[in-house]
Amino acid sequence: MSLNEFKDRLFDLLNETDCLPIADLEVQDTMDVIKVCLTDKSAFKIKCSRYKD
Questions:
Q1: Residue 53 above 80 pLDDT?
Q2: Is the dihedral of CA 47, 30, 16, 10 positive or negative?
Q3: Cβ atoms of residues 39 and 23 within 8 Å
Q4: Alpha helical stretches, state H, the chain
Q5: Cα–Cα distance measured from residue 13 to residue 9, given in angstroms and rounded to the nearest whole number
Q6: Under DSSP, is residue 51 helix (H, G, I), strand (E, B) or coil?
Q7: Strands (E) located in 1-53
């Protein structure tokens, strides 16, 4: 699986979940980052990179 495919699937997973109170998702594609903003105004950054053995 490519990094871009993984990021797309992760975005879809986050976008469709009811387990987190997500207010907004921001993608910084060139930096391989997904910013997750929650309804309580907290925010988290997910940095994606491919792990190579």
A1: no
A2: negative
A3: yes
A4: 3-16
A5: 6
A6: coil
A7: 22-28, 33-38, 43-47
Asked if 36 and 18 count as a contact pair (C-beta separation under 8 A), the reply is no
- The size of the chain, in residues, is 53
Chain position carrying tokens 């910013």: 35
Q: What is the C-alpha R_g of the chain?
A: 12
Taking only the tens place, the pLDDT of each residue in 1-41 is 999 999 999 999 999 999 999 999 999 999 999 999 999 99
The residue behind tokens 């792990």 is 51
Q: Is the pTM of this model over 0.70?
A: yes
Within 10 Å of residue 31's Cβ, how many Cβ atoms?
Answer: 10
